[in-house]
Amino acid sequence: MTEESTIITKEIGHLKGHTDWVTAIETGHPQKENEDTQVLITASRDRTILIWKFNNDSKVVSDFGEPVQSLTGHSHFISDLALTNDNNYLLSSSWDRSLRLWDLRTGKTTQRFVEDGHNKEILSCAISNDGRYILSSGADREIKLWNVKGNCKHTVKEHNHHDWVSKVRFIPTSSKTSVGGQYFASIGWDGYLKVWNNQTFNIKDSIKVHDSTINAVTVSPRGNFIVTGGKDKKVRVFDFSDVEKPAPSHDAGAPVNCLAFNPRCHWIAIGTEVGWQIWDFEAKDTPVIGEGNFKLEGKKNLDEKASKKIKSDKFHQVTSIAWNTLGNRLFVGFSNGDVKAIEVTEEKTN
Question: Which of 323, 325, 326 is nearest to 342 (CA)?
Fold first, then answer.
C-alpha cells in the first residue's frame, strides 16, 4: 500500500489594523536553520507600515496577533517592502515618489531616496542579499539602482519597458563572488518579463509572457525559477537558465494580483481578485492543493438599500501574499485592510 498525503489548510488568524489595501507583507529571514522568525510586517494604501506581534498561546482566530508599532512618514500609498537579511532594516516604496530605509530597532527613517529619483509613482523596491544595493521601479517606466546612502548609481536607459514597471526582484545566485546577486528580474504593464545583469545592466532575456498587464513576480529561493502572474488570469513558471523555453502555466480563474514562492517546496501562493490558491506546479493530478476567499458582507453602518448592492458572490481582492520562513503558514492581505493567517499542514494517508 502506497503512502499518500493530503494538504489541509486552516485559518488560524484574522488580523485587523489597516484601513485600506494591504499592499505588501514581509515575514523576515531565518537567522538559524529551521527557525521561524515570528516576523510580520505589513504595508498599506493607508500610508502606514505595521509591525505585528503574535499571541502564540491564543486559540482564538481574532486574537492571533496585534500591531505593536506603526511606521509613518510616506505621504501617499505604500507600494512595496523589502527586508534586509538580518531583519534590522526595512525598505519601503511609495506613490509619493520616494523610498525610505527604516531602522526597525528604533522605528525611525535612516535614509530617504529622492535625489535623482523617480518623477512618478514608485511601484516596487528590492534590496540585495548583502544589503548594499537597492532597486526601484515605477510608473515613469524607469528602473534605478541605489546604494544604501540614498545615491542613485544607475538608471536603466536601454531595453526599457514600454509601460509601468510593476515589480523588480533580485535573483539569488549560488556565486559567493556576485554582488547582491548577479541578476534581477522586472515585469511591466507591457506584458514583458525582463532579466538583467545587475553589474553591467545588459539584458539577458526580454520576452512577452502575458497578453496584458503583469502584476506579480516571485523568484524561487535558489533563483532557478521565475514565476509571473497577470491580468490575463495566467500564472507562468520559467526556468532561469532558459526563460524562452515553454513554461508550465496555470489558469487562476481571475486576474492575478500577487505571488509568493514557498521557501521549502514547489508550491506557489497566488492572490487574485476573488481569493487565494496554492498551486503545486510539479503535480500532475491535483495541482491546486489549497484555496480560499473572503466574502464581502454588508456593513452595519450601511442602510438596507446599500447593503443589498453587495452580492453574495463578491469577495475582497487579495492584494498581497507571503509565506513564513518555514513554508507552513501563509499570510494573505486583502483590499479591505485585513490580513488572514492560514496554516498549511500535510497529513499522510494510506
Answer: 323
